Amino acid sequence: MKTLLKSFYFAVQGIAAAFQSERNFRIHVTAAIIVIAAGLFFNISLIEWIVILLLIGGMLALELVNTAIERIADAVSKEFHPLLKTAKDAAAGAVLVYAAVSVVIGFIIFAPKIIEVFS
Ligand SMILES: Nc1ncnc2c1ncn2[C@@H]1O[C@H](COP(=O)(O)OP(=O)(O)OP(=O)(O)O)[C@@H](O)[C@H]1O
Questions:
Q1: pLDDT band, residue 119 (cuts 50/70/90)
Q2: Is 89 annotated as a binding residue?
Q3: Cofactors per UniProt (predicted)?
Q4: Among 95, 30, 23, which residue's Cα sits nearest to residue 63?
Q5: Reported confidence tier of residue 38, pLDDT bands at 50, 70, 90
Q6: Engineered SS bond to 69: which of 37, 64, 91, 107, CB 3.0-4.6 Å?
Q7: Ligand 1 centre from 77 Cα, in Å?
Q8: Which of 84, 88, 95, 96 to mutate to test ligand 1, by most ligand atoms within 8 A of the CB atom?
Q9: Where are the alpha helices (DSSP H) in the chain?
Q10: Per-domain residue ranges for the chain?
Q11: Does 118 score more than 90 pLDDT?
């Protein structure tokens, strides 16, 4: 039980450290808060909430993994290495793919509701 609590504590420490050091992580948290506020404002359906929460959780989790890969790469070497470049670029690419898909899905969910409000 003590080990489980410790693991949880270290995981929370990891999230807090990423929040403090990673500008992109803070941007994603801010975007998540805005999307949740929009969801409440437009009274989105249960299935839409599930999709939105999966996207938000996935995005934040992926950003944390990206941070982990960046830190490991920096620990391996600060010198230029083509494999470190590939690793960092691939991790950044994963975040970009997920962010782009999230924006498209967000548009599909919210665009009709925004149009309805302004028409
Ligand atoms: N040691 C290295 N060897 C080769 N290329 C590197 C190395 N470190 C960084 N790069 C290249 O520079 C890019 C930016 O690296 P950096 O570590 O600044 O990541 P970042 O995404 O800007 O990090 P952060 O989100 O913390 O600002 C990487 O995507 C990679 O292409």
A1: confident
A2: yes
A3: Mg(2+)
A4: 95
A5: very high
A6: 91
A7: 11
A8: 88
A9: 2-21, 23-41, 46-76, 82-118
A10: 2-118
A11: no
pLDDT at residue 24, rounded to an integer: 96
Q: Known binder of ligand: residue 116? A: no
Q: Return the residue matching tokens 């050091």.
A: 21
Is 89 touching ligand 1 by the criterion CB < 6 Å? Answer: yes
The CATH class that applies to domain 2-118 reads: mainly alpha
Q: Is the CB of 26 under 6 A from ligand 1?
A: no
Q: Is it the case that residue 91 has pLDDT exceeding 90?
A: yes
Alpha carbon distance 102, 87 (integer Å)? 23
Q: What gap in Å lies between CA 100 and CA 113, rounded to an integer? A: 20
Give the separation between CA 44 and CA 1, rounded to whole angstroms: 39
Q: What's the ipTM?
A: 0.90
